[in-house]
Amino acid sequence: MAYSRIKEELESNKQEFTYAEVLTMTKNLERVVGKGGFATVYYGRIDDTEVAVKMLSPSAQGYLQFKAEAKFVAVVHHKFLTSLIGYCDDGEKMALIYEYMANGDFSKHLSGIF
Ligand SMILES: Nc1ncnc2c1ncn2[C@@H]1O[C@H](COP(=O)(O)OP(=O)(O)OP(=O)(O)O)[C@@H](O)[C@H]1O
């Protein structure tokens, strides 16, 4: 699937946020909840909804993995997957915004299922 198609999929189904909005929802990236191979995850709130904001680390490899994840979550809908609320694609700043899961990331949830 081409990146333009992935973007189309995201744009039609998910909310787009500016980087300024990401800073507002995370209180200027105040609380780090985790770190993955290509992103740092921050705690945030959009009104009453708790969110996990996964900010892409600035690296080419990270960019590829980020695109792969965006493609995956945009296409696959499964009740056990963390739900994607929206994304930020604002110049150099890219983020995926998920529902916050108090009990950790979805791989921990999956390990209880399989
Ligand atoms: N939706 C979420 N709600 C709460 N915490 C989260 C959420 N998503 C990720 N985290 C936290 O951030 C950490 C990093 O997540 P991330 O998805 O970036 O990396 P990973 O799955 O651990 O590894 P990889 O980068 O290889 O995919 C997780 O281990 C978890 O603690």
UniProtKB/TrEMBL annotation:
It comes from the Eukaryota. The gene is Vigan.07G029600. Residues 27-114 form the Protein kinase domain. ATP binds at residue 54. One of its GO terms (molecular function) is protein kinase activity. InterPro entries: Kinase-like_dom_sf (IPR011009), Prot_kinase_dom (IPR000719), Protein_kinase_ATP_BS (IPR017441), Ser-Thr/Tyr_kinase_cat_dom (IPR001245). Pfam families: PK_Tyr_Ser-Thr (PF07714). This is Protein kinase domain-containing protein.
